[in-house]
Amino acid sequence: MKILVVGSGGREHALCWAIRRSPLCGDLFCAPGNAGIAEFATLVPIDVLDTDGLVSFARDHAVDFVVVGPEAPLVAGLVDKLEAAGIKAFGPSAAAAALEGSKGFMKDILAKYDIPTAAYGRFTDADAAKAFIRARGAPIVVKTDGLAAGKGVVVATSVEEALAAVDAMMGDKVFGAAGDELVVEEFLTGEEASFFAIVDGITALPLAAAQDHKRVGDGDTGPNTGGMGAYSPAPVVTPEIVAKVMDRCILPTVRGMAAEGKPYRGILFAGLMIDKGEPKLLEYNVRFGDPECQVLMARLESDIVALMLAASERRLAGQSVTWSDDPALVVVMAAKGYPGSYQKGTVISGLEEAGLVEGVRILHAGTARDKEGRVVATGGRVLGVTARGATVAEAQARAYQAIEKICWPEGFCRHDIGWRALER
Ligand code: AMP
Ligand code: GLY
Question: Is 225 in the pocket of ligand 2 (CB under 6 A)?
Protein backbone atom coordinates (compact mmCIF):
# COMPACT_ATOMS: atom_id res chain seq x y z
CA MET A 1 0.00 0.00 0.00
CA LYS A 2 1.02 3.58 -0.57
CA ILE A 3 0.66 5.30 2.79
CA LEU A 4 0.73 9.01 3.70
CA VAL A 5 1.34 10.09 7.30
CA VAL A 6 0.29 13.65 8.19
CA GLY A 7 2.36 15.49 10.82
CA SER A 8 5.93 16.41 11.69
CA GLY A 9 6.55 15.59 15.35
CA GLY A 10 7.97 12.80 17.45
CA ARG A 11 4.58 11.09 17.34
CA GLU A 12 4.72 10.95 13.55
CA HIS A 13 8.33 9.69 13.54
CA ALA A 14 7.21 6.89 15.86
CA LEU A 15 4.22 6.13 13.62
CA CYS A 16 6.41 6.02 10.49
CA TRP A 17 8.84 3.70 12.31
CA ALA A 18 5.99 1.31 13.19
CA ILE A 19 4.31 1.60 9.77
CA ARG A 20 7.62 0.76 8.03
CA ARG A 21 7.72 -2.53 9.98
CA SER A 22 4.42 -3.62 8.39
CA PRO A 23 4.53 -5.99 5.42
CA LEU A 24 1.52 -4.04 4.09
CA CYS A 25 3.59 -0.86 3.70
CA GLY A 26 4.93 -0.01 0.24
CA ASP A 27 5.76 3.62 -0.56
CA LEU A 28 5.59 5.79 2.55
CA PHE A 29 5.13 9.59 2.43
CA CYS A 30 5.02 12.07 5.28
CA ALA A 31 3.71 15.64 5.13
CA PRO A 32 5.60 17.68 6.17
CA GLY A 33 7.78 15.32 8.29
CA ASN A 34 11.22 16.02 9.76
CA ALA A 35 14.88 14.99 9.36
CA GLY A 36 14.36 11.72 11.26
CA ILE A 37 11.23 10.75 9.36
CA ALA A 38 13.18 11.18 6.10
CA GLU A 39 14.94 7.91 6.99
CA PHE A 40 11.65 5.99 6.54
CA ALA A 41 9.50 8.15 4.27
CA THR A 42 9.57 10.59 1.36
CA LEU A 43 8.92 14.05 2.79
CA VAL A 44 6.16 16.11 1.18
CA PRO A 45 6.22 19.87 1.91
CA ILE A 46 2.51 20.37 2.63
CA ASP A 47 1.26 21.92 5.87
CA VAL A 48 -0.97 19.75 8.08
CA LEU A 49 -3.78 22.33 7.86
CA ASP A 50 -3.68 22.53 4.04
CA THR A 51 -6.43 19.94 3.79
CA ASP A 52 -7.10 20.56 0.09
CA GLY A 53 -3.38 20.27 -0.69
CA LEU A 54 -3.17 16.97 1.20
CA VAL A 55 -6.22 15.54 -0.59
CA SER A 56 -4.78 16.58 -4.00
CA PHE A 57 -1.43 15.01 -3.16
CA ALA A 58 -3.07 11.76 -2.06
CA ARG A 59 -5.19 11.65 -5.21
CA ASP A 60 -2.32 12.54 -7.57
CA HIS A 61 0.00 9.94 -6.06
CA ALA A 62 -2.63 7.20 -5.77
CA VAL A 63 -2.18 7.00 -2.00
CA ASP A 64 -4.15 4.04 -0.58
CA PHE A 65 -4.27 5.03 3.08
CA VAL A 66 -3.74 8.25 5.05
CA VAL A 67 -2.82 8.26 8.75
CA VAL A 68 -3.42 11.61 10.46
CA GLY A 69 -1.21 12.31 13.52
CA PRO A 70 -2.24 15.69 15.04
CA GLU A 71 -5.63 16.94 16.21
CA ALA A 72 -5.83 20.21 14.23
CA PRO A 73 -6.34 18.66 10.75
CA LEU A 74 -8.80 16.13 12.24
CA VAL A 75 -10.87 18.92 13.80
CA ALA A 76 -10.60 20.78 10.46
CA GLY A 77 -12.21 17.83 8.63
CA LEU A 78 -9.27 16.26 6.79
CA VAL A 79 -10.64 12.73 7.13
CA ASP A 80 -14.07 13.82 5.84
CA LYS A 81 -12.45 15.40 2.77
CA LEU A 82 -10.25 12.37 2.07
CA GLU A 83 -13.19 9.98 2.32
CA ALA A 84 -15.32 12.22 0.09
CA ALA A 85 -12.49 11.88 -2.46
CA GLY A 86 -12.61 8.08 -2.09
CA ILE A 87 -9.34 7.84 -0.13
CA LYS A 88 -9.19 5.65 2.98
CA ALA A 89 -8.03 7.41 6.12
CA PHE A 90 -7.39 6.65 9.77
CA GLY A 91 -8.78 9.16 12.25
CA PRO A 92 -12.14 10.62 13.30
CA SER A 93 -14.44 12.81 11.22
CA ALA A 94 -14.64 16.49 12.18
CA ALA A 95 -17.92 15.80 14.00
CA ALA A 96 -16.30 13.06 16.11
CA ALA A 97 -13.04 15.00 16.58
CA ALA A 98 -15.12 17.56 18.50
CA LEU A 99 -14.40 15.32 21.51
CA GLU A 100 -11.06 17.17 21.54
CA GLY A 101 -11.99 20.25 19.50
CA SER A 102 -14.67 21.41 21.96
CA LYS A 103 -14.26 20.68 25.66
CA GLY A 104 -17.87 21.76 26.19
CA PHE A 105 -19.10 19.20 23.64
CA MET A 106 -16.94 16.53 25.27
CA LYS A 107 -18.23 17.32 28.78
CA ASP A 108 -21.85 17.25 27.58
CA ILE A 109 -21.29 13.80 26.03
CA LEU A 110 -19.75 12.57 29.29
CA ALA A 111 -22.69 13.96 31.29
CA LYS A 112 -25.33 12.58 28.93
CA TYR A 113 -23.84 9.06 28.96
CA ASP A 114 -23.03 9.06 32.68
CA ILE A 115 -19.24 8.84 32.37
CA PRO A 116 -17.27 9.74 35.55
CA THR A 117 -15.66 13.17 35.22
CA ALA A 118 -15.26 16.48 37.10
CA ALA A 119 -18.45 18.53 37.71
CA TYR A 120 -18.51 21.50 35.29
CA GLY A 121 -20.23 24.51 33.80
CA ARG A 122 -20.11 25.81 30.17
CA PHE A 123 -20.00 29.58 29.66
CA THR A 124 -20.16 32.06 26.81
CA ASP A 125 -20.59 34.94 29.27
CA ALA A 126 -17.68 36.07 31.46
CA ASP A 127 -19.89 37.31 34.33
CA ALA A 128 -21.71 33.99 34.51
CA ALA A 129 -18.37 32.13 34.55
CA LYS A 130 -17.13 34.39 37.37
CA ALA A 131 -20.30 33.92 39.42
CA PHE A 132 -19.87 30.13 39.08
CA ILE A 133 -16.22 30.41 40.23
CA ARG A 134 -17.15 32.59 43.24
CA ALA A 135 -19.92 30.19 44.24
CA ARG A 136 -17.64 27.13 43.95
CA GLY A 137 -14.43 28.55 45.41
CA ALA A 138 -10.85 27.38 44.75
CA PRO A 139 -9.05 25.26 43.74
CA ILE A 140 -10.91 25.27 40.42
CA VAL A 141 -9.99 24.67 36.78
CA VAL A 142 -10.66 27.06 33.86
CA LYS A 143 -10.36 25.78 30.27
CA THR A 144 -10.86 27.23 26.81
CA ASP A 145 -13.50 25.35 24.87
CA GLY A 146 -11.44 25.21 21.67
CA LEU A 147 -7.95 23.98 20.76
CA ALA A 148 -5.10 25.96 22.33
CA ALA A 149 -2.12 23.67 21.63
CA GLY A 150 -2.44 22.17 25.10
CA LYS A 151 -2.07 25.58 26.79
CA GLY A 152 -5.71 26.56 27.38
CA VAL A 153 -5.98 25.09 30.90
CA VAL A 154 -5.47 27.00 34.15
CA VAL A 155 -5.52 25.02 37.39
CA ALA A 156 -6.26 27.94 39.74
CA THR A 157 -5.36 27.71 43.42
CA SER A 158 -7.30 30.88 44.29
CA VAL A 159 -10.56 32.49 43.16
CA GLU A 160 -8.59 35.58 42.00
CA GLU A 161 -6.39 33.44 39.75
CA ALA A 162 -9.45 31.76 38.23
CA LEU A 163 -11.16 35.13 37.63
CA ALA A 164 -7.97 36.42 35.97
CA ALA A 165 -7.95 33.35 33.71
CA VAL A 166 -11.51 34.15 32.60
CA ASP A 167 -10.44 37.72 31.75
CA ALA A 168 -7.36 36.54 29.85
CA MET A 169 -9.17 33.82 27.88
CA MET A 170 -12.50 35.52 27.23
CA GLY A 171 -11.65 39.22 27.52
CA ASP A 172 -8.10 39.48 26.15
CA LYS A 173 -8.54 36.44 23.88
CA VAL A 174 -5.01 35.19 24.58
CA PHE A 175 -6.01 31.94 22.85
CA GLY A 176 -8.08 33.65 20.14
CA ALA A 177 -11.48 32.19 19.31
CA ALA A 178 -10.69 29.10 21.41
CA GLY A 179 -11.67 31.27 24.41
CA ASP A 180 -15.07 32.39 23.07
CA GLU A 181 -16.51 29.70 25.30
CA LEU A 182 -15.08 28.34 28.58
CA VAL A 183 -15.48 25.24 30.68
CA VAL A 184 -15.03 25.73 34.43
CA GLU A 185 -14.67 22.52 36.38
CA GLU A 186 -14.09 20.89 39.71
CA PHE A 187 -10.44 20.28 40.70
CA LEU A 188 -9.66 16.57 40.86
CA THR A 189 -6.83 14.96 42.82
CA GLY A 190 -5.05 11.68 42.18
CA GLU A 191 -2.47 10.29 39.78
CA GLU A 192 -2.71 11.07 36.06
CA ALA A 193 -2.30 8.52 33.29
CA SER A 194 -2.89 8.34 29.55
CA PHE A 195 -4.93 5.42 28.21
CA PHE A 196 -5.35 4.59 24.54
CA ALA A 197 -7.96 2.60 22.62
CA ILE A 198 -8.43 2.00 18.91
CA VAL A 199 -12.01 2.36 17.72
CA ASP A 200 -13.87 1.54 14.47
CA GLY A 201 -17.20 3.25 15.19
CA ILE A 202 -18.64 0.30 17.14
CA THR A 203 -15.81 -1.83 18.51
CA ALA A 204 -13.11 -0.45 20.81
CA LEU A 205 -9.94 -2.40 21.58
CA PRO A 206 -7.80 -1.35 24.53
CA LEU A 207 -4.23 -0.55 23.49
CA ALA A 208 -1.94 0.39 26.37
CA ALA A 209 -1.38 3.01 29.03
CA ALA A 210 1.45 5.46 29.51
CA GLN A 211 2.37 8.31 31.82
CA ASP A 212 3.94 11.52 30.65
CA HIS A 213 5.75 14.31 32.47
CA LYS A 214 4.05 17.60 31.67
CA ARG A 215 6.16 20.03 33.72
CA VAL A 216 9.39 21.34 32.23
CA GLY A 217 11.62 20.86 35.28
CA ASP A 218 12.98 17.98 37.35
CA GLY A 219 10.70 16.96 40.21
CA ASP A 220 7.64 18.06 38.15
CA THR A 221 8.35 21.76 38.63
CA GLY A 222 7.98 24.79 36.36
CA PRO A 223 5.51 25.52 33.57
CA ASN A 224 3.47 22.93 31.67
CA THR A 225 4.78 21.65 28.33
CA GLY A 226 3.53 19.30 25.63
CA GLY A 227 5.33 16.53 27.55
CA MET A 228 9.01 16.15 28.50
CA GLY A 229 9.06 12.36 28.62
CA ALA A 230 6.90 9.29 29.05
CA TYR A 231 6.96 5.61 29.79
CA SER A 232 4.74 2.61 29.18
CA PRO A 233 3.27 0.55 30.74
CA ALA A 234 1.97 2.81 33.53
CA PRO A 235 2.02 0.82 36.79
CA VAL A 236 -0.95 2.82 38.16
CA VAL A 237 -3.13 1.49 35.32
CA THR A 238 -3.69 -2.02 36.63
CA PRO A 239 -5.83 -4.59 34.77
CA GLU A 240 -8.71 -3.61 37.13
CA ILE A 241 -8.35 0.04 36.11
CA VAL A 242 -8.28 -0.93 32.41
CA ALA A 243 -11.53 -2.87 32.89
CA LYS A 244 -13.15 0.10 34.66
CA VAL A 245 -11.97 2.59 32.02
CA MET A 246 -13.25 0.42 29.17
CA ASP A 247 -16.63 -0.26 30.86
CA ARG A 248 -17.29 3.17 32.33
CA CYS A 249 -15.57 5.54 29.88
CA ILE A 250 -14.50 4.20 26.48
CA LEU A 251 -17.40 1.86 25.62
CA PRO A 252 -20.20 4.25 26.72
CA THR A 253 -18.49 7.04 24.76
CA VAL A 254 -18.26 4.92 21.63
CA ARG A 255 -21.92 3.86 21.96
CA GLY A 256 -22.94 7.44 22.74
CA MET A 257 -21.11 8.93 19.76
CA ALA A 258 -22.76 6.33 17.48
CA ALA A 259 -26.17 7.21 18.98
CA GLU A 260 -25.45 10.91 18.33
CA GLY A 261 -24.85 10.12 14.65
CA LYS A 262 -21.12 10.92 15.08
CA PRO A 263 -19.51 7.46 15.15
CA TYR A 264 -15.96 7.60 16.47
CA ARG A 265 -13.16 5.99 14.50
CA GLY A 266 -9.47 6.34 15.23
CA ILE A 267 -7.38 6.52 18.38
CA LEU A 268 -9.28 7.54 21.50
CA PHE A 269 -6.84 8.92 24.09
CA ALA A 270 -8.35 9.15 27.57
CA GLY A 271 -6.59 11.50 29.97
CA LEU A 272 -7.35 9.93 33.36
CA MET A 273 -7.17 10.99 36.99
CA ILE A 274 -6.99 7.91 39.20
CA ASP A 275 -7.79 8.30 42.88
CA LYS A 276 -7.92 5.33 45.27
CA GLY A 277 -8.43 2.91 42.39
CA GLU A 278 -11.26 4.93 40.80
CA PRO A 279 -10.60 6.47 37.38
CA LYS A 280 -12.22 9.72 36.23
CA LEU A 281 -11.93 11.20 32.78
CA LEU A 282 -10.06 14.54 32.61
CA GLU A 283 -10.29 14.87 28.85
CA TYR A 284 -10.38 13.06 25.55
CA ASN A 285 -7.89 13.54 22.76
CA VAL A 286 -8.63 12.20 19.29
CA ARG A 287 -5.11 11.01 18.44
CA PHE A 288 -2.04 9.41 19.94
CA GLY A 289 -0.25 11.43 22.62
CA ASP A 290 3.12 12.97 21.98
CA PRO A 291 5.46 11.69 23.51
CA GLU A 292 3.26 8.75 24.61
CA CYS A 293 3.13 7.41 21.04
CA GLN A 294 6.90 7.00 21.01
CA VAL A 295 6.83 4.51 23.90
CA LEU A 296 3.73 2.71 22.60
CA MET A 297 5.35 2.17 19.19
CA ALA A 298 8.51 0.94 20.92
CA ARG A 299 6.39 -1.77 22.62
CA LEU A 300 3.89 -2.65 19.90
CA GLU A 301 4.42 -6.06 18.30
CA SER A 302 1.23 -6.20 16.20
CA ASP A 303 1.04 -4.78 12.69
CA ILE A 304 -0.08 -1.17 13.14
CA VAL A 305 -1.16 -0.82 9.50
CA ALA A 306 -3.41 -3.90 9.74
CA LEU A 307 -4.98 -2.49 12.92
CA MET A 308 -5.55 1.00 11.54
CA LEU A 309 -6.96 -0.39 8.31
CA ALA A 310 -9.31 -2.66 10.27
CA ALA A 311 -10.48 0.39 12.26
CA SER A 312 -11.10 2.44 9.14
CA GLU A 313 -13.00 -0.48 7.53
CA ARG A 314 -15.08 -1.21 10.66
CA ARG A 315 -13.69 -4.69 11.22
CA LEU A 316 -11.85 -4.39 14.53
CA ALA A 317 -14.10 -6.97 16.22
CA GLY A 318 -12.07 -10.11 16.89
CA GLN A 319 -8.67 -8.44 16.28
CA SER A 320 -6.03 -8.64 18.96
CA VAL A 321 -3.07 -6.46 19.86
CA THR A 322 0.21 -7.75 21.27
CA TRP A 323 2.84 -5.79 23.19
CA SER A 324 6.34 -6.43 24.37
CA ASP A 325 6.40 -6.94 28.14
CA ASP A 326 9.54 -4.82 28.22
CA PRO A 327 8.83 -1.28 29.34
CA ALA A 328 9.78 1.64 27.12
CA LEU A 329 10.74 5.14 28.18
CA VAL A 330 11.31 8.34 26.19
CA VAL A 331 13.27 11.39 27.31
CA VAL A 332 12.47 14.54 25.33
CA MET A 333 15.31 16.90 24.46
CA ALA A 334 14.05 20.45 24.00
CA ALA A 335 15.59 23.76 22.98
CA LYS A 336 16.70 25.86 25.99
CA GLY A 337 13.91 28.34 26.78
CA TYR A 338 11.05 25.95 25.88
CA PRO A 339 8.09 26.20 26.62
CA GLY A 340 8.90 29.93 26.33
CA SER A 341 10.87 31.41 23.43
CA TYR A 342 13.93 29.56 22.15
CA GLN A 343 16.56 29.65 19.41
CA LYS A 344 16.08 27.80 16.12
CA GLY A 345 18.65 26.43 13.69
CA THR A 346 21.17 25.18 16.27
CA VAL A 347 23.26 22.18 15.19
CA ILE A 348 22.94 18.72 16.78
CA SER A 349 25.60 16.01 16.43
CA GLY A 350 26.35 12.59 17.87
CA LEU A 351 22.95 11.15 16.92
CA GLU A 352 24.35 8.11 15.11
CA GLU A 353 26.51 7.06 18.04
CA ALA A 354 23.62 7.66 20.45
CA GLY A 355 21.36 5.45 18.33
CA LEU A 356 23.83 2.57 18.74
CA VAL A 357 23.18 2.23 22.48
CA GLU A 358 21.38 -1.09 23.01
CA GLY A 359 17.59 -0.81 22.92
CA VAL A 360 17.67 2.87 21.91
CA ARG A 361 15.97 4.60 19.00
CA ILE A 362 16.36 8.35 18.47
CA LEU A 363 13.02 9.78 17.35
CA HIS A 364 12.99 13.29 15.93
CA ALA A 365 10.35 15.86 16.85
CA GLY A 366 11.51 19.25 15.54
CA THR A 367 14.47 18.79 13.19
CA ALA A 368 15.54 19.49 9.62
CA ARG A 369 18.79 19.22 7.65
CA ASP A 370 20.67 22.38 6.73
CA LYS A 371 22.50 22.95 3.42
CA GLU A 372 25.54 21.07 4.70
CA GLY A 373 23.37 18.08 5.64
CA ARG A 374 23.67 18.68 9.39
CA VAL A 375 20.69 18.04 11.67
CA VAL A 376 19.38 21.33 13.10
CA ALA A 377 16.68 22.06 15.68
CA THR A 378 13.52 23.65 14.27
CA GLY A 379 11.11 23.49 17.21
CA GLY A 380 10.72 23.52 21.00
CA ARG A 381 10.62 19.78 21.52
CA VAL A 382 13.37 18.49 19.25
CA LEU A 383 14.28 14.85 19.98
CA GLY A 384 12.70 11.90 21.78
CA VAL A 385 15.39 9.51 22.97
CA THR A 386 13.43 6.27 23.26
CA ALA A 387 14.68 3.11 24.94
CA ARG A 388 13.40 -0.31 25.82
CA GLY A 389 14.78 -2.41 28.65
CA ALA A 390 13.95 -5.41 30.82
CA THR A 391 12.88 -2.92 33.53
CA VAL A 392 11.98 0.77 33.65
CA ALA A 393 15.32 1.35 35.37
CA GLU A 394 17.20 -0.29 32.50
CA ALA A 395 15.22 1.61 29.86
CA GLN A 396 15.91 4.85 31.74
CA ALA A 397 19.64 4.12 32.07
CA ARG A 398 19.88 3.37 28.34
CA ALA A 399 18.06 6.56 27.35
CA TYR A 400 20.31 8.74 29.48
CA GLN A 401 23.41 6.87 28.26
CA ALA A 402 22.39 7.76 24.69
CA ILE A 403 21.76 11.39 25.65
CA GLU A 404 25.33 11.68 26.92
CA LYS A 405 26.51 10.96 23.38
CA ILE A 406 24.40 13.72 21.85
CA CYS A 407 26.20 17.03 21.42
CA TRP A 408 23.71 19.90 21.45
CA PRO A 409 24.75 22.77 23.74
CA GLU A 410 21.50 24.67 23.11
CA GLY A 411 19.32 21.76 24.27
CA PHE A 412 18.22 20.37 27.63
CA CYS A 413 16.22 17.49 29.08
CA ARG A 414 14.74 16.41 32.40
CA HIS A 415 16.86 14.00 34.40
CA ASP A 416 14.12 12.14 36.26
CA ILE A 417 11.84 10.71 33.58
CA GLY A 418 10.13 7.62 34.97
CA TRP A 419 10.46 8.55 38.66
CA ARG A 420 6.91 7.55 39.57
CA ALA A 421 7.36 4.07 38.09
CA LEU A 422 10.77 3.70 39.74
CA GLU A 423 9.41 4.80 43.10
CA ARG A 424 6.85 2.01 43.00
P1 AMP B 1 -6.11 18.91 29.85
O2 AMP B 1 -5.53 19.64 28.65
O3 AMP B 1 -7.57 19.04 30.01
O4 AMP B 1 -5.57 17.51 29.99
O5 AMP B 1 -5.46 19.64 31.10
C6 AMP B 1 -4.06 19.80 31.22
C7 AMP B 1 -3.64 19.39 32.60
O8 AMP B 1 -4.32 20.19 33.57
C9 AMP B 1 -3.99 17.96 32.95
O10 AMP B 1 -3.03 17.07 32.50
C11 AMP B 1 -4.04 18.05 34.46
O12 AMP B 1 -2.74 18.00 35.00
C13 AMP B 1 -4.62 19.42 34.71
N14 AMP B 1 -6.09 19.34 34.87
C15 AMP B 1 -7.03 19.45 33.91
N16 AMP B 1 -8.26 19.32 34.41
C17 AMP B 1 -8.12 19.13 35.76
C18 AMP B 1 -9.02 18.93 36.84
N19 AMP B 1 -10.35 18.94 36.66
N20 AMP B 1 -8.51 18.74 38.07
C21 AMP B 1 -7.17 18.75 38.27
N22 AMP B 1 -6.26 18.94 37.29
C23 AMP B 1 -6.72 19.13 36.04
N1 GLY C 1 1.38 14.31 25.89
C2 GLY C 1 0.06 14.79 25.95
C3 GLY C 1 -0.59 15.01 24.66
O4 GLY C 1 -0.15 14.55 23.62
O5 GLY C 1 -1.63 15.67 24.64
Answer: no
